[in-house]
Write a structure and sequence with these properties.
alpha/beta; L-arginine/glycine Amidinotransferase, Chain A; 6 helices; 15 strands; binds citrulline
Length: 254
Amino acid sequence: MNFTKAIVRKPSPSLEKGLTTAKLGLPVFEKAVRQHSKYVQTLKRLGLEVTELEASDPFPDATFVEDVALLTPHCAIITNPGAPSRKGETKLIEPILKSFFENVEYISEPGTLDAGDVIEIEGEYFIGISERTSAKGAQQLILILHQYGLQGYTVPVQDGLHLKSSISYLGNNTLLATADFSNHPIFQKYNIIEVNEEETYAANALLINGKVMVPRGFYHTVDQLEHAGFEVEEVAVSEFEKVDGGLSCLSLRF
Ligand code: CIR
């Protein structure tokens, strides 16, 4: 899918209170701000018009806007995040989505869903069932997608926070994926570039208008991508990695 716009939210000084399983230390706020600003510049350089929302102190994870909405060509679907501390983020994102989308749908209790668990591949939506996304949330999403003539399928997520922590679609029928997913039957119809086990964080990459954004410092993955003919843009996101944030979760693209 080609994108023209993106929505991001600046990180808040409360970022260090963000949920995490990573043992990488606390994020340094000033560094996170610099990295976020370069991330935004990269999106703009790749042709996107970026709406920058103000930081939200009460919600340390609100900079990870990708989780609170799934944007499709026909509608925006506001999720019901699985982590209790993130549920209020949906109210923050609602007004801006209503300004861009005529159709806004909702995932509701008892279903939970983080959109970081949803990967779109050529119009088909794969939904990870994870610690954050429940089978009921996935079922609600599949029904909403059906209303718009779209298809959704579920995939169990055993490791990693979200499905998209471990798999990205790069266009040309090609996925970048960790070993966990490269052998999964549901993805065998795609060409798969498997990331090295020391570089699993780089499996969360972003295809933006023909270029692939990857987190900085994952040299083997960059070599693999360039060898496969992709143009790569490296972006430093180390401060977000410290709170389990991937490259894609810092923006909503549409
Ligand atoms: C969380 O645990 O919810 C945040 N600290 C990180 C969310 C990352 N989201 C994503 O990769 N889609």
